[in-house]
Amino acid sequence: AKAQGKHRITEYNPQMGEENLRRISMEQQLRDALRRQELSLHYQPKLSVCRHEVVGMEVLLRWHNPVLGTVSPAQFIPVAEQSRLILEIGEWVLEEAMQQNLAWQRQGLPLLPMAVNISALQVHQHDFVPRLISRMTRLGYPGSRLELELTEGVVMEGAIPVRRYFEQLRQLGVRISIDDFGTGYSNLGYLSRFPLDTLKIDRSFVSDIDAQPDKQQIVRAIVQLARSLSVSVVAEGVENQQELACVEALGVDELQGYLFSRPLPAELFSHYLGATRGV
Ligand code: C2E
Ligand code: CA
Ligand code: CA
Ligand code: CA
């Protein structure tokens, strides 16, 4: 694979040149994004089935750059990972999100857990967990209001020390969820040994599920697996009533998607909470 990579670089390929340039310029801009305060966080509600009460939220990173405009995380997160900038950015996300959650608490809004996406590179730092714990201690942030969304890869590579780390976090009430579940290569043996709370079904299985029996089979299987592991299931990307009815019938526990709300900036999210919770 390495030789092939080398070959590709020497080959004349204007499109690849363009892509490289774009990536390099994105990386340069991203390097300064934190300092220039171009990053912000949006919050998307998670709701309970049936009653559709807000039971939590997911924190999603946003980037607006004067040169590049608004860049989607699907584009810049991979660049941040390749350049390892995600380490610094990830720290900022955790700090900013916890501060925001505490600010909502001071405003008397409902106390809700907040799910933060954590990149594999962050988890692979040997001191990720101790630093997270000291951050929570410094801020007075309760573990019960934090959930970490990890990818399947992180859990599957999860050597024993990694598992111990997460067990430590769970003792503080922090929840662990596997994001994009169903798209990776989960090994059931590993899965059952990893300290887990939630499986988050990938959006690709929810999209148009009402019209696609194969997707219904997959979601049914994931729900069964979750039951046997005693973890809960979240369906993300619920966009319409048909998809909602379908995932509810299949027995998922929580819902997230544009049908209820898009990810919102902090101020709009607190209005949404106030409106739905009668604050
Ligand atoms: P994800 O963790 O799977 O996040 C869910 C994505 O689905 C979000 O995209 C969200 O806006 C989108 N979404 C939610 N409901 C719907 C829906 O009903 N329909 C559709 N079409 N989309 C929906 P977003 O915000 O563009 O983020 C993309 C990915 O970027 C995330 O996927 C996550 O992997 C990554 N990401 C975002 N923020 C962070 C972060 O702070 N740290 C890290 N490491 N990754 C992040
Ligand atoms: Ca996520
Ligand atoms: Ca996902
Ligand atoms: Ca449909």
Précis, in short:
The chain is of the alpha/beta class and 279 residues long. It contains 13 helices and 10 strands.
Main beta sheet: 8 strands, mixed, barrel
Low-confidence stretches: 1-8
What is the count of β-strands? Answer: 10
Intertermini distance = 57 Å
Main-sheet strand order equals: 1-2-4-5-6-7-8-9
N-to-C series of helices and strands: HHEEEHHEHHEHHEHEHHEHEEH
Helix content: 40-55%
Average pLDDT value? 90
Bound molecules: ligand C2E, calcium ion
Q: What do these coordinates show?
A:
This protein is α/β, with parallel strands linked by helices and 279 residues long. The protein is built from 13 helices and ten strands. The chain has helices at 2-10, 14-33, 73-82, 85-106, 120-124, 128-139, 152-157, 160-171, 188-193, 203-206, 213-229, 241-249, 266-277; strands spanning 39-48, 54-65, 69-71, 114-117, 146-151, 175-181, 198-201, 232-235, 254-255, 264-265. Strands 1-2-4-5-6-7-8-9 form an eight-stranded mixed β-barrel, surrounded by four helices. Helix 12 links the parallel strand 8 and strand 9. The chain is globular and about 45 Å long. Mean pLDDT is 90; it is low at 1-8. The chain binds ligand C2E and calcium ion (CA) (3 copies). One calcium ion (CA) is lined by residues 179-180, 200, 202-203, 236. Residues 58, 117, 149, 179 line the site of one calcium ion.
Ordered list of secondary-structure elements with their pairings:
Blueprint: H1 2-10, H2 14-33, E1 39-48, E2 54-65, E3 69-71, H3 73-82, H4 85-106, E4 114-117, H5 120-124, H6 128-139, E5 146-151, H7 152-157, H8 160-171, E6 175-181, H9 188-193, E7 198-201, H10 203-206, H11 213-229, E8 232-235, H12 241-249, E9 254-255, E10 264-265, H13 266-277
Parallel strand pairs: 2-4, 4-5, 5-6, 6-7, 7-8, 8-9
Antiparallel strand pairs: 1-2, 1-9, 1-10, 2-3
Helix pairs in contact: 3-4, 4-6
The structure holds ligand C2E and calcium ion (3 copies).
One calcium ion (CA) binds at residues 58, 117, 149, 179.
